Every structure is written in C-alpha cells, then in structure tokens.
Amino acid sequence: MIFPLLWLLASAASPTIQSPEEMAGVLQDVQQLGISLANRNLSAIQKVLMAVAASNATNSTADNVLHGVDEIVNETLEPAVERDFSVAQDEISGFHELFLKCEEDQLSAFNHSVLDQKKIVHFAEEHLICRQHQVLLLDANLSCTTLLQAAKTVEDAKCALYERSRTVPEASVVCQAQAHEAPEAYHERKIKELEDSLAQLLTRRRDCEEAKVQAQMQSERCEKARQDLANGHKACDEKQLMVDSTVCALQTRMGVDCSAYDSCRKQAMASFMQANESVKMTEAELKATWTMLKQVRCMINGAKERSPLKVALCSKQRNFSVAHLIINYSTVPPFAPCQSLAEPPGSPQYMTALYGHMPPRAPASPCEASCCNLQVVR
Ligand SMILES: *[C@@H]1O[C@H](CO)[C@@H](O)[C@H](O)[C@H]1NC(C)=O
Ligand SMILES: *[C@@H]1O[C@H](CO)[C@@H](O)[C@H](O)[C@H]1NC(C)=O
Ligand SMILES: *[C@@H]1O[C@H](CO)[C@@H](O)[C@H](O)[C@H]1NC(C)=O
Ligand SMILES: *[C@@H]1O[C@H](CO)[C@@H](O)[C@H](O)[C@H]1NC(C)=O
Ligand SMILES: *[C@@H]1O[C@H](CO)[C@@H](O)[C@H](O)[C@H]1NC(C)=O
Ligand SMILES: *[C@@H]1O[C@H](CO)[C@@H](O)[C@H](O)[C@H]1NC(C)=O
Ligand SMILES: *[C@@H]1O[C@H](CO)[C@@H](O)[C@H](O)[C@H]1NC(C)=O
Ligand SMILES: *[C@@H]1O[C@H](CO)[C@@H](O)[C@H](O)[C@H]1NC(C)=O
Ligand SMILES: *[C@@H]1O[C@H](CO)[C@@H](O)[C@H](O)[C@H]1NC(C)=O
C-alpha cells in the first residue's frame, strides 16, 4: 500500500539509455527492484545490487539503474513513510480532542448544576424567611386568643351586672318615710333614688352592649388571624415544595448528565482502543519500512562503489534512527467523577441538612416533591 507509484516512477527515472538491449536490461532490473521493494524482499534487492556491484566499473547502464532506485527511495518511498506517519499521528491526536469534548460537555453540565444549586440556595432562603414570618402569625393568633378571652370575660361581667339590675326588687323596698322626714322630702328622695337607679341601669346596659361589640370585633380579628396563619402556612409549604422540586430537577439532571458523559467516554474509549491497535501496527510497519529503505540506500552506495562486500554487510545493519517515527500516543484523560446528591431527597439526613435550622415552632413539612415520594415508595 505504500508503493503505488513505484512502477510508474521507475519507468520515468531512467534517463540516458541508448540501445534497445540496454533499455531492456535496465527496465528488467528496475522492474525487479520495484517489485522487490514493494514486497519488502530485501534479499531479492540485495541480489540485484550485488550483481551491479560485481559488474564492470564503467557500466553506465548499471549506474543509471542505481540512480533510478535512489530517486525512487528519495522522492517516493521515504516521503510516503513520513506521510503515512503523520496520518497515523493525526488519527491518534484526534482522540485527544474527542475525549476533551466529553470533558467539556461534563464541565458545562457541572456549570448548569452549579446554577441549579444556586437556585436551591435562593429558594431555601425564601423558605426560611417565610417560616420566620409564620412564627409571627402564630404569635398573632395566640395573642388574639388571649385578647378574645379577656373581651369575653369583660362582656360576661358587664352583661351579668346589667341583667342583675334589670330585675327591680320592688317588694323588698320599704316605701316608707323616715322619722322626722316631711312627706315632700320623702317623695323627693324617692324620685331621686329612682332616677339614679334608672341612670345606672342605662349605663350598665350601654356597658354590656359595648362589651358585646368589643368581643365580636375581637372575635372577627381572631378569625382573620387564624385565616392569615393558615394562608401563611400554606404559602410556606409551597415555598418548600419549590426547594424540594428544584432538588429533584437537579437530581434528574445529574443522572442524565452522568449517563451522557458515561456514554461519551465509552464511545470515545472504544474507538480509541481500536485506533490505538491499528496505529500501533502501522507504527511498527513504518519503522520496519524505514529501516529497510536505509538498508537499500546503504546497498545502493555499496553498489555505486562496486563493492559486493559493502552491499552484503548492509542487510546486517539495523541501527538506523526511527525517532521521527515514534507515535505520540494520546493519554486518556482521567474519568471525571459523576456528580450526585450527598443526601437522598426526603431522607432524614436531607431534611436535617436543608430544614434543620427552621424555627422550632414553624418546622418544615414532610417533603412532598416527586423524588421524595419515590424515596418513600422504595
Ligand atoms: C524474494 O525474491 C526472490 C527472487 O528474487 C524469491 O525467490 C523469494 O521467494 C522472494 N521472497 C519473498 C519473501 O517474497
Ligand atoms: C552492465 O551491468 C548489467 C547488470 O547490472 C548487465 O546486465 C550488463 O550486461 C552490463 N553491461 C556491460 C556492458 O557489461
Ligand atoms: C569490463 O569491461 C571491459 C571492457 O570495458 C571488459 O573487457 C571486461 O570483460 C568487463 N568485465 C566484466 C566483469 O564485465
Ligand atoms: C538521495 O538522498 C541521499 C541522502 O539524502 C543523497 O545522498 C542522494 O544523492 C539522493 N539521491 C538522489 C537521486 O536524489
Ligand atoms: C463553566 O463556568 C466557568 C466559570 O464559572 C467558565 O469559565 C467556563 O467557561 C464554563 N464552562 C462551560 C463549558 O460552560
Ligand atoms: C390559633 O388560635 C386558635 C384559637 O383561637 C387555636 O385553636 C389554634 O390552635 C391556633 N392555631 C395554631 C396553629 O396554633
Ligand atoms: C495505546 O498504545 C500504546 C502503544 O502500544 C500504549 O502505550 C498505550 O497504553 C495504548 N493505550 C491504551 C489506552 O491502551
Ligand atoms: C551503526 O553501526 C555501524 C557499524 O555497525 C556504525 O558504523 C554506525 O556508525 C552506526 N550508526 C549509528 C547511527 O549508530
Ligand atoms: C504529545 O502530545 C501531547 C498532546 O497532544 C503534547 O502535549 C505533548 O507535548 C506531545 N509530546 C511530544 C513529545 O510531542
């Protein structure tokens, strides 16, 4: 696969050939070398180059063959190895990006979850304020009850007094003049007494009625206080549901993000392992090819010098540097831990963590959000 253009270039690479016989011989040799290079048949190449090295020093046809092979190695085969190396390197480097994409998605998910958590903190603060307000409403309800009892007591007393004054004890009153009292004086005194008694009766009746009105008004105030308290309690429960529901949404999102990250990593990992294997093989192949090309060049030099011994020694030489063909394998970034909630929603630990600091008289209600209900079902 590395030598597709070999034959074409080999044909074009033999410049100054005169006779048809020479032409035929060169082409035959070059064709043989080309096939041998393609097959990585070093011993076949060596055999041809040994023959060249052993041939006459003034054989220009042989030199043309050597030059042709040299050019093929320089201009086609070596660049092909380097090109294939960068393709393999790019393939592996690409995976770094792929893994990075997973991590970026995870980071953005983390950012979203941070936003959700901020929302939860905000809702939790609103909930706490609501519960504190609920305590005030409780106090109002309580003091109203006390005031109502007082008003009722006043009403009872005033009206009892009035009731008692209403029954005129006529029989028991002694309608008699006192000693030395003139009849006019007596009558005057009696009229005065009756007038006083009437005034007192009217005052007591008014007092009783006023106390009744006061008690009624207080009772209405208490009804309103009870209503306010009930509404306040309900409003706080709604705020609490807001907190718990947001926690549920966060939990769901964390689960979704987690499995998205998981499958992103799994997919990246699977294709990375596959590519890693194939690139590992390509790398070994390219190094071997490079070494072979260096050995061929060594043989060409030996052949140029017409030294069969040097050509023979070339196949033993293997210490050519392949440092530029070492693949920089991407390292797989560490697996980021999945986010999860520390306390399962609705659990006692959860209730303590989120609602442990509510006013004792206005504690949180049991968690009614969807994920808490699931918790209970389980
Ligand atoms: C190498 O080429 C020679 C002929 O030059 C042939 O006999 C031998 O089978 C070839 N070896 C391989 C491994 O292709
Ligand atoms: C030159 O060398 C080639 C082999 O490389 C051989 O086939 C040819 O006969 C030689 N020509 C002469 C004139 O010696
Ligand atoms: C080398 O070339 C000379 C003539 O140039 C010829 O006489 C001689 O036989 C050739 N030797 C070989 C080994 O081809
Ligand atoms: C091939 O490359 C080598 C070393 O880079 C050089 O010595 C030689 O002259 C080159 N040959 C050709 C035909 O370009
Ligand atoms: C996440 O938030 C940080 C700062 O809060 C920001 O620098 C970063 O770009 C964000 N990343 C993504 C993927 O949204
Ligand atoms: C509010 O006061 C009423 C009495 O007026 C009492 O029965 C009720 O329990 C109080 N409500 C609360 C929640 O304390
Ligand atoms: C990929 O291959 C290289 C080279 O063999 C190896 O060092 C590395 O551990 C491999 N990576 C994985 C994730 O298997
Ligand atoms: C490779 O080994 C040969 C001897 O076998 C030596 O002459 C040459 O300098 C060595 N080259 C390198 C790059 O080590
Ligand atoms: C290997 O690749 C990584 C990331 O692509 C890069 O940071 C590192 O510098 C490279 N190492 C070498 C020796 O090229």
H-E order: HHHHHHHH
Sheet with the most strands, sense and barrel status: none
- Report the span from N to C terminus: 61 Å
Structure summary, number of beta strands? 0
Mean pLDDT: 86
**What is the CATH-assigned architecture?**
Orthogonal Bundle
Classify the secondary structure makeup into a structural class: mainly alpha
Query: How would the global form be characterised?
Result: rod-shaped
**What count of domains describes the coordinates?**
1
Bound molecules: 2-acetamido-2-deoxy-beta-D-glucopyranose
What integer value in Å does the Rg equal? 54 Å
Name of the CATH first level: Mainly Alpha
**Helix amount, in percent?**
over 70%
**What is the chains' assembly state?**
single chain
CATH topology: Helix Hairpins
Portion of residues in beta strands equals: under 5%
Task: Enumerate how many helices there are, as a single number.
Answer: 8
Coiled coil: 184-228
Keywords: Coiled coil, Signal
Signal peptide: 1-18
Describe the SSE topology.
Blueprint: H1 6-12, H2 20-39, H3 42-54, H4 60-166, H5 183-304, H6 308-314, H7 348-355, H8 370-377
Helix pairs in contact: 1-2, 2-3, 2-4, 3-5, 3-6, 4-5, 5-6
Bound molecules: 2-acetamido-2-deoxy-beta-D-glucopyranose (NAG) (9 copies).
